Amino acid sequence: MAITLKERPLFIIGSERSGTTLLMAMLGNHPRIAVPEVAWYYPRFRPYLFSYGDLSQTQNLRTLADEMVFGLKTPFWDMPVNPATIVDEILASAPQPNFAGIYTAMFERYARWQNKPRWGEKTPHNLFYVGQILEDFPNAQFVFLTRDGRDASAEYLRSAFGPTNIFAAARTWKLCQNAVKPWRETLDTGQWLDVGYEQLARDPLPVLRTVCAFLGEEFSPALLDFHRGTIAQRRGQTRDHAPLGQPVSTQWIGRYRRELSLEEQAIFATIAGQELTEAGYSVDVEPAQIDDKELNLYLERDQRTRAALLGAPDGHLVHESYNDWLIDQRLERKRRGFWSDQDVPAEFPHGHPQEEEIAGYRAQRRWKEHFGVKRVYTSHEVVL
User: Fold this and answer.
1) What is the pLDDT of residue 160?
2) What stretch of H or E contains 304?
3) If DSSP codes are grouped into helix, strand and coil, which group holds residue 280?
4) Distance (Å, whole) CA 65 – CA 59
5) Is the pLDDT of residue 306 over 90?
6) Is 111 exposed, middle or buried (0-12, 13-18, 19+ CB in 10 A)?
7) Is the domain 10-148+172-254+317-370 a CATH 3.40.50 member?
8) Which tens digit of pLDDT belongs to each residue from 84-133?
9) Residue 380 confidence (pLDDT)
10) Which PANTHER family does the record match to this protein (predicted)?
């Protein structure tokens, strides 16, 4: 059953490295809106609910709740909780005994802790699950961030996660852009808002006023003071998100011109030039000639590199280890008869060549096993 909340839920979406974290920090500083760290609940759990068996059975529902509650990258979103009782508390406050109910209970608890009436979520890959979100929350609102894919790719290639060469980066950005096309055309202006990263960075005030008007909220100057917030300050300690600890800046606009070679720009134009033009950006190089053999070579190299870098400084091995553990639990439930191959829905993202990436995995399981990447479940560093 759908859940219609009086305070409409907000979803900030967009391809990674497109400014979603910036807008998350800004809107999370609004006096009425609580936006916690990324959850990855829809990509990691929603398509795989079949693997938990009948959720009307208490133990099956509890298993789902347990994996969701303890699976956050930032443990419990910093909320003061008793780990021994938190799952019981979430289940008791869930408006429905299902995924959406557990999801609601988690976000409403966070909003109460923040003393705010409304909540939002920023998980970039929720853009692949707009339909499922609407099934669960019919009055949800979506803000989609678009950034020049070449800038996003330049950032990817220097980050501790995501695509490691221009072939893979362009493919991922293209996939994200195309995923939202049907929803941009279908949803009305009361449910969908497009925001350009470049406009937000150059002149944030009018853009934020537009966002607040879309949300039906009064603009607050606190949005421009986002960099002093807890999330921004924590993220600002990391190499990948250091700019978040400072006021908004234009220095990252057009970074591809100094960081991507002309050959890389040409490769991007070949793979995602159409989507780049559709998004309003100019393509100023001739597309490269790429055959399938070369493309597949670089896509495999990307996956090999991702697996090898998981354990490097600033790698994402801790959370990747939990993701892999989730798959282990799924396979164990299959062994115990909770589900079979016939239960897997014949719908996206099942069977998609980028299914694991869509679900938030930083490397394909087969390459982690190939290189014998060992799991690590504890960390003393900032985990995002």
Assistant:
1) 82
2) helix 292-309
3) coil
4) 10
5) yes
6) buried
7) yes
8) 999 999 999 999 999 999 999 999 999 999 999 999 999 999 999 999 99
9) 64
10) PROTEIN-TYROSINE SULFOTRANSFERASE (PTHR12788:SF10), PROTEIN-TYROSINE SULFOTRANSFERASE 2 (PTHR12788)
Distance in angstroms (rounded) separating the CA atoms of residues 93 and 185: 36
Q: What is the pLDDT of residues 243-279, one digit of tens each?
A: 777 888 899 999 999 999 999 999 999 999 999 999 9
* Sheet strands side by side (includes 33-34): 33-34, 118-122, 10-13, 141-146, 192-196
- Tokens for 8, please give them: 């409409």
**Strand ranges in the chain using DSSP code E only, listed in sequence order:** 10-13, 33-34, 118-122, 141-146, 192-196
The CA distances from residue 208 to 23, 41, 76, 187, 244, in Å, are 9, 27, 28, 21, 17
Residues of the chain above pLDDT 70, percent = 97
Q: State which H helix or E strand residue 235 sits in.
A: helix 230-235
What are the extents of the domains in the chain? Answer: 10-148+172-254+317-370
**DSSP SS3 for 181:** helix
Cβ 177 vs Cβ 275: under 8 Å: yes
Q: Which two tokens stand for residue 281?
A: 């950006």
Closest CA to 214 of 296, 105, 141: 141
